[in-house]
Structures are given as C-alpha cells and as structure tokens.
Amino acid sequence: MDDHEANLLGALATGVRDLVREALAEAAGLDETAVAALLVVRARPGQSITDLATAVGLTHPGAVRVVNRLEQRGLVARARGRDGRSRGLALTAEGETVSARGLAARRDSLQRLLEDVPGEHRASLVSAVEAMLARLPASRGDAWRICRTCDHGVCRGVQCPVGSAIDRQRAG
Fold first, then answer.
1. N or C, which end of the chain is more exposed by having fewer CB within 10 Å?
2. Whole-number pLDDT of residue 1
3. Is residue 146 a contact partner of residue 136, using CB atoms and an 8 Å limit?
4. Rounded to whole angstroms, how far apart are CA atoms 86 and 158?
5. 55 and 97: one domain?
C-alpha cells in the first residue's frame, strides 16, 4: 500500500465513524458512549456490566455510571444474569424503541454513503472490507468493541468477518 492509499483509508475510517456517531446520537438522543452501551445490551441481553465495559472500552466504574444513566432514563434494567446468580442487563420497551431508532438511522446514513458506489464495484468493496475487518480483532473483547454499533440481526455467525476471525484464531 502506498502512502496515498493509506491516507485515503484513514480519512474514510474517520469520516464513517463520525457519520455513524452523529446518526446514532441524533436518533437516540444519547451521547456516543451511552448509545453504544444501549446497542451492546440489545445485542447480548443478560450480559454483565464487566462484559459491557469490555465491549464499550470503559473501566468497570465508567460502565456502571453509563448503566445508571440509561437506567434513570428508563432504557436499561438490571435483570437476572446469564448464570442465574449474577445480575445482567436488559433493555426496557423504551430501550428497544430507542435502540431500533438508532440502528435505523445508522443503516440509512451508511446506505446513503454507499449510493455513490457503482453496483459493479460493490462486490469488490465488500470483499476488501471483510478482509480488513478480519485483521482487526485480536480477542473476543476486540470483536465486541469493533461491532459495538452493528446491527447484529444482519451480520451474525459466519456472516460476521470480525467474529469469524476470532473463531478461526481459537480453532487454529
């Protein structure tokens, strides 16, 4: 890769991150960290605050503060954890509505960005992006952070190059 290609990729990454962050924040009415936490709880209900902290890139006390704010707004509730003994996190009905609105805004903003990519280039773009995404995660926590604002109903299991990369690392 030459310097120009690397620079273009860096600018694209920054621009896409800003585009997604703004779409999510505006649609959900939450700051970047809170909306990411809301989407992580949506993707993995019942997870612990420790897992949420890993996925959002916060310390445990920072994640507790975010959960407290989301709970005060009526978006998240503490519920029974995955093992039955611990406490887990779940979305309330309002949290489901707000997170769905955020994901729709994310999807719409990204689809508008892709409108300018000619159809004959789409398959190549998808292949290139999948290859780059597969190189990013070194751990399950990395995968959670990378995919923290993804629509997990669209990209799951073998469809997800990030999660699949972790699965291949563990198998290999």
1. C
2. 61
3. yes
4. 30
5. yes
Looking at the fold, whether 98 and 146 belong to one and the same domain comes out as: no
pTM score: 0.89
Q: What is d(CA 34, CA 99) in angstroms, rounded to the nearest whole number?
A: 11
In 3D space, the residue among 25, 26, 43 whose CA is nearest the CA of residue 34 turns out to be 25
CA atoms within 13 A on the CB side of 153: 7
80 with 157, same domain: the answer is no
CB 47 within 8 A of CB 139: no
> Contact at 8 Å (CB) between 46 and 89?
yes
Q: What are phi and psi of 80, to 5 degrees?
A: -65, 135
- Strand locations in 30-75 (E): none
Binning pLDDT at 50, 70 and 90, where does residue 82 land? low
Domain boundary among 98, 116, 134: 116
Residue with tokens 């780059």: 132
In this structure, which amino acid lies at residue 39?
A: L
Provide the strand spans (E) within the chain: 76-80, 87-91
Question: If 0-12 CB within 10 Å is exposed, 13-18 middle and 19+ buried, where does residue 99 land?
Answer: buried
